[in-house]
Amino acid sequence: MISLSKQFRNIVSIIVILFISEVTNSQIAFANGWNVTTSVPNVTTAASGSNRLLIYVITFEDDDNTNDVTSVSYGGQSLTQAVQATTLTGGGSQSRVEIWYLNQAGITASSHTTFTPVFSISNPTTSHGYYTMAVTLSGVNQSSPVCTSGVGQRLTTTTVNLSSGISVLPSELVIYATHGGESRTHTPATGYTESADLNGASGGQSSTVNSKSITASGTENPVSTASGSQNRFVIAAVRIIPNGATCSSALPIELTHFVASFADEGVKLEWRTAGERNNDFFTVERSLNGIDWVEITQIKGAGNSAAPKNYSAYDNSPIADVMYYRLKQTDYDGTISYSWISNVDPDNFEQNTFKIYPNPATSELNLIGNPFELKVTNILGQEVTRDVIISRNQKNRLLLNISGLQSGTYFIHSNSSYIRFIKM
Q1: Who has the most CB within 10 Å: 271, 300, 335, 384?
Q2: Nearest 5°: CA angle at 48, between 251 and 131?
Q3: Is the pLDDT of residue 19 over 60?
Q4: What SS3 class is residue 24?
Q5: Pairing mode, strands 294-305 and 218-220
Q6: Which residues contact 213 (CB under 8 A, 6 or more apart)?
C-alpha cells in the first residue's frame, strides 16, 4: 500500500517529467488531432505547448478558374502561406491545394479560434464548396519552420506526385495534401499516415491530408492514388523542421531510448541513438526536483554516425529518494541540447523496470518486464490508452497495437515509471 506522501511524490514526479519533456524535447509532435470541416468556418482550438505551429490546409474546386486564397487569419492573426498547388483546369473547373501556417507568437496573440480565408474572386462554397483541415504541432523551429515545398498536377489520372522530390533529414516532418476533381477515395503514399480522406461534396471532389515523421536522410516524393480516375489531381507538400535544427542540418542526435533503472552498481543509465551529427559528448545529469541539476559523468559521443549506437553509464552514489536523470548533449561547436527526463524510485524499483521495442514503431510495440496499471499518454499528458489495443503473444509478453495513434511522441506509464516512444 502506498503512503499519502508517496502518492503525492509520484504525482509531482509525473507533472515535472511531462512539463520538462515537452520543453526540452525537439522532436516534432502532433499536439492534437486534425480538425476537418466541409463548410465554413473552420473553428480550431490550438493545443497548448511550446514551439507550436498551427497548420491550416484548404482545398477546393471552383468554376472560377483563377480564384485564389489571398490571405488567411486566425483569431485576428495573419497566417503565412507555405505552398499552393498550381491551378489545374479540367471539366470546366479548377482544383487547388494551399497550406498555411501560424507560429507560436501568432497563436499566443490570437483573440479567437476561427480561421478566415479571403478569396480573390468569390467564396467557392457558393458553387462546389471546399474542405479545410487544421492541426497544432509542437517542437517546431520558430524562425523558419517550413524549409521546402513541392507541388504536382495531372489530368485524367489515378495517381499524382510532386514534380520533383523534397530532400529531408532525420527528425523532420513532411505533410502533403491532395485534391481531385471526382468523388474518389485516396490511398496515401507508402510510409505516410492518412489523417483525412474526404469525398462526395457537391459537384464531385475529394481531398486528403497525410504526414510522415522522417527518420533517415533522403528524398521524399509521395505518390497518392485514387480509387478511380480523376479528371484532375493536384498535390502540395511541405517539409517542416524541429526546434534546434536548421534547413541544412538535422538535430545533432536521434535519441530513441533513454531509461534509468536500479542495478548492483547503483543506478544504470542506458540510451540509444539512431544517428548522430557532430556529437562531441554526452553529460549525464541528476536532479532531486527535476529543476536543479548536477553532473554525474561524461561519455564520448560517436561524432558522425548513421548506425544505431548504444550507451550506458552509472550513478554509483544514488540518493535514497526519487531521482531524475537527463542527458546533456554537446556538439563540436559547443551547441547544447537536452533529452527528456527518466526517473527512478528506490521504494518500488522491482516493479519499475520494463523495456519496449522497436522504438520508433509504426504499428506494434513489444514490452519486456512486469509492467502493471499500464496507461499511455501523449506529450501533453493526455491519456490515449483507449486508442491502443493491448494483448499478449505466444510467449506471454505484452503487445501494444499503436496503429490507432497519430504520428508523434508518447509515454507508456506503469506505476511511477514511464518510457517514451515515437509513433511513426
Answers
A1: 271
A2: 90
A3: no
A4: helix
A5: unpaired
A6: 27, 28, 171, 172, 173, 360, 407, 408, 422, 424
**How many angstroms separate the CA atoms of 231 and 90, rounded?**
6
- Share of residues in the chain with pLDDT > 90 (%): 38
Least confident of 21-25, 330-334, 350-354: 21-25
Helix (H) or strand (E) holding 166: strand 166-168
Neighbours of 27 (CB within 10 A): 24
Q: Minimal CA–CA distance to 239: which of 189, 162, 174?
A: 174
In 241-394, the DSSP E strands lie at 253-263, 266-287, 294-305, 309-315, 323-331, 336-338, 342-344, 354-357, 364-369, 374-378, 389-392
Helix (H, G, I), strand (E, B) or coil at 268: strand
User: Which residues, in sequence order, are CB contacts of 34 under 8 Å at separation 6+?
Assistant: 133, 134, 135, 195, 196, 209
Bridge partners of 298?
283
> For 218-336, where are the alpha helices, taking DSSP H only?
none
CA pair distance 275, 273, nearest whole angstrom: 5
Torsional class of 289: left (φ above 0), alpha (ψ -120 to 50), beta (otherwise): alpha
Q: Tell how many helices (H) and how many strands (E) occur in the chain.
A: 2, 33
Check: CB of residue 182 under 8 Å from CB of residue 226.
yes
Handedness of CA 6, 11, 15, 21 (dihedral sign): positive
Q: Distance (Å, rounded) from C-alpha 205 to C-alpha 183?
A: 5
Which helix (H) or strand (E) is 17 found in, with range? helix 4-24
Is 251 exposed, middle or buried (CB count within 10 Å of its CB: 0-12, 13-18, 19+)? buried
Pick from 112, 133, 110, 145: nearest CA to 26: 145
Phi, psi of 82 (to 5 degrees): -90, -40
| Residue located via cell numbers 467557392 | 124
What are the residues whose beta carbons fall under 8 Å from the beta carbon of 361, sequence distance 6 or more?
402, 421, 422, 423, 424
Q: Answer yes or no: is pLDDT of 145 > 90.
A: yes
Using an 8 Å Cβ cutoff, are 398 and 392 in contact? yes
Rounded to an integer, what is the distance from CA 334 to the centroid of its chain? 27
DSSP 65-103: TT--EEEEEETTEE-EEEEEPPPEEETTEEEEEEEEEEE
> Could you give the CA distance from residue 216 to residue 233 in angstroms, rounded to a whole number?
29
pLDDT at 203: 59
